[in-house]
Write a structure and sequence with these properties.
The structure holds two protein chains of two kinds. Chain A is an all-alpha fold. Chain A contains 21 helices and no strands. The two termini of chain A are about 25 Å apart. Helix content of chain B is about 5%, strand content about 55%. In chain B, a hairpin with a 4-residue loop joins strand 6 and strand 7. The chains are: A mainly alpha, B mainly beta. Chains A and B meet through helix 1, helix 14 and helix 17 of A and strand 15 and strand 19 of B.
């Protein structure tokens, strides 16, 4: 039976799901829902810092995959640069240039130490401009950052899992782990003895998997070993910071939230401030890809394809096809996919954005909203 | 999956009726059996065998000489209780490795008596009530597959959700339910037709599914959701969601032979949640002396003992279902993952 024909039958059963979301009330905060854009910006600021750590740790390295990690500094900047520019145009300009300098110096094999130091100073200033330090200081914010560092890509769990095929992802995982230790040190201060000890144990379990940042010459072992501990660690962090750190617990509600978040961004696109609007779409793309893409693809592959194309027409997104398309039912001909891409690309950003909001609303309904 | 419990209950009832009717003179060997508890140790690549009369490990069955590369995970028992089936795979879900297979262990001898290939990283499995077919979840390929036990031949393959995990076959053998961690779904497969008829969304990161003895309900744990979804199998719809708390991280679930209770392994809280099936509410949470990170859970045939496989303390906790308390902890291999009860005849 084709997946979309199953969808109609399944829709009825989804009505009973609303009660499943009740459990999310166990915790006080929902940083990924209530501060979606802020957490996305924080994720980018943190990633930029990890890339600088990588550049600092491996001077003179010019491996292509390594350079790719460093070049992604520009992509990180795109996720918060508009907000930064609106608040402090000079700082935004200086930081963008500094990140560019780091990438160029690393690519040419030159000593990038001074450029890295300069970029890191500016990045720290930018962090405080983009995200209110009072928010940065909250347990929920730190918990969400920790979750991204542990489970996001790049990150601790993914870095270890990908080590066999992408050795420099391992190094990013190592850098993320160093930041995790620092943040956990702050967060665990408010934990009771049991949870502090449990969290410390998770770090002690993960730490030996990353003896240093050097990418492994040959990876052996269980690629999912870091993930098991990282998942458990996030569970501990949730309790310690009293925050729901899995925004996908209620799929329909998340889809509705993303649609709601997207709508005002369309007005920003229409006003011509694409850089700022892009930041929202990056945030939407991140949560959609991590939490809804595969599920949507199972129930409504055409809608999943449409959302994917619309996101790609607005911002640069990772190709997540490999997971969502698993199994023969999800396959789509290259020709058809190409047509859809063309359709989405031919729209003005504001139109794409509105179409995206509509498709996300559709996703919410498909998933039981 | 615990077909043994269902069948053992029927067998016990039949024997009781026969004895009451004057048929007590059965040969002793036909009546005397001994249970064994099997624990799949993920990181040791072996199976611990526990004698529940002494709570001691009486055998360790190696599954591979490459622990750390090859792992046993989900297990199922044949309807007569005499064969334990183990899904075995390597650690890399992306690879089709020769280690992807299903292994059969004879409960009487504790020896591997058969194995057949099951490519695609088999994670969990179940056996049909007539004992002729196995269905396994193939984690790497988002599929479930049926295998003929006698020949090892793959008889069906069905697309399910992404990162397939839990498998349960309904007592009437009509349906195969398969959970999928990444899509948060249970796929309902018409077993004879070999086709998926429906995907049902359940809690976040569903792990294990079990049917009630009468087959009218299926229970699905959701690790991140912290819930157990109750599915009405007449129309395959979620009719209730039992909240265990977000920190509970439930994995395996055992249905009491009497059908009145569910026992759920709470990996996040190192607890066992006892659910009253009449109300679908948590009646008791057993925490004291439960080993760390229980994932596996199983129950013996008369429903008096529950066994949890504790992955962080490499142990099995033994729970007395009358006091609902832990009465023993037994050391097993590294990364205790799943638990299952087998039964073997005892020579007189």
């Amino acid at each position: 039976m084709r997946a979309h024909s199953i969808t109609a039958v399944a829709a009825v059963s989804l009505l009973a799901l609303s009660c499943a979301s009740a459990s999310a009330q166990d915790y006080t905060d929902r940083p990924f829902i209530d501060a979606t854009l802020v957490q996305s910006q924080a994720r980018a600021l943190e990633l930029a810092d990890l890339r600088l750590t990588l550049a600092e740790t491996f001077p003179g390295e010019t491996d292509d995959d390594f350079l790719e990690q460093i070049e992604s500094l520009q992509g990180d900047f795109a996720r918060f640069g508009g907000t930064l520019a609106a608040a402090d145009a000079d700082l935004a300009q200086s930081l963008e240039a500094a990140l560019q300098d780091v990438a160029e110096a690393v690519e040419s094999g030159e000593d990038a130490a001074e450029d890295i130091a300069e970029a890191r100073t500016l990045l720290g200033e930018a962090y405080d401009v983009v995200i209110d330090p009072a928010i940065q200081d909250t347990a929920a914010f730190k918990g969400a950052v920790l979750t991204d560092l542990l489970l996001g890509e790049p990150g601790v769990a993914e870095g270890y899992e990908e080590a066999g095929e992408e050795p420099w992802a391992f190094s990013m995982g190592w850098a993320a782990l160093q930041r995790v230790k620092e943040l956990w040190g702050e967060v665990s201060a408010q934990a009771d003895e049991t949870h502090r000890s449990d969290g410390d144990e998770m770090i002690a379990t993960i730490d030996p998997l990353f003896p240093n940042g050097e990418p492994p010459e040959r990876f052996v072992g269980n690629p999912e070993e870091a993930e098991a501990s990282a998942q458990r660690f996030v569970g501990i962090i949730e309790t310690v910071v009293s925050a729901d750190l899995y925004p996908g617990r209620d799929h329909a509600a998340l889809a509705a939230h993303l649609a709601e978040l997207t709508t005002p961004a369309c007005e920003v696109y229409a006003s011509g401030d694409e850089v700022v609007a892009d930041e929202t779409i990056y945030a939407v793309a991140g949560l959609y890809t991590d939490n809804l893409a595969e599920l949507t693809n199972l129930f409504a592959p055409e809608t999943a394809e449409e959302v994917s194309d619309l996101l790609a027409s607005l911002v640069e997104v990772e190709d997540e096809d490999e997971g969502g398309a698993a199994g023969e039912g999800a396959e789509q001909s290259d020709e058809t996919a190409g047509d859809d891409d063309d359709d989405a690309a031919s729209l003005a950003p504001a139109e794409s954005c509105e179409a995206l909001a509509e498709q996300l609303r559709q996703v919410g309904m498909i998933l039981g909203g | 999956m615990n077909h043994f419990n269902r069948n053992a209950l029927a067998l016990t009832t039949a024997l009781t009726l026969m004895i009451a009717g004057g048929f007590a003179a059965l040969p002793a060997s036909a009546q005397e059996t001994a249970e064994r508890v099997y624990i799949a140790n993920e990181y040791n690549a072996d199976i611990s065998v526990i004698d529940p009369t002494s709570d001691e490990v009486i055998a360790t069955i190696p599954i591979s000489e490459r622990p750390g590369d090859v792992r046993p995970r989900g297990m199922a028992v044949s309807p007569d209780g005499r064969t334990i089936y183990v899904s075995v795979s390597d650690f890399n879900p992306q690879l089709e490795a020769p280690e992807d297979k299903i292994v059969a262990i004879d409960v009487l001898s504790n020896e591997i008596i058969n194995e057949f290939r099951a490519g695609g990283n088999p994670e969990r499995l179940d056996v049909t009530p007539d004992g002729t077919q196995i269905w396994a979840s193939l984690e790497a390929t988002a599929q479930a597959a049926g295998y003929d036990i006698e020949t090892g031949r793959r008889t069906a393959v069905v697309r399910v959700g992404v990162e397939a995990e839990g498998v349960a076959i309904s007592p009437d053998a009509r349906w195969v339910y398969v959970t999928a961690e990444a899509t948060h779904t249970v796929t309902v497969i018409d077993r004879e037709a070999g086709q998926a008829i429906k995907h049902i969304i359940v809690g976040n990161r569903p792990r294990v599914v079990e049917f009630s003895q009468d087959g009218t309900r299926a229970y699905v744990t959701a690790e991140i959701g912290g819930t157990v979804s109750v599915i009405d199998t007449s129309d395959h719809t979620v009719i209730d969601t039992i909240n265990l708390g977000l920190d509970s991280r439930p994995v395996e679930i055992a249905v009491a032979p009497a059908g009145d209770r569910l026992y759920v392994a709470g990996g996040g809280t190192s607890a066992v949640y006892v659910i009253d099936t009449a109300t679908n509410e948590v009646s008791t949470v057993i925490r004291e002396q439960v080993g760390r990170r229980p994932w596996g859970i199983t129950i013996n045939s008369d429903g008096t003992r529950v066994y949890t496989a504790n992955g962080l303390s490499d142990s099995v906790s033994v729970i007395d279902t009358e006091c609902l308390c832990v009465i023993d902890n037994i050391s097993v291999g590294r990364g205790a993952h799943s638990a299952q009860v087998g039964v073997a005849p005892v020579e007189q």
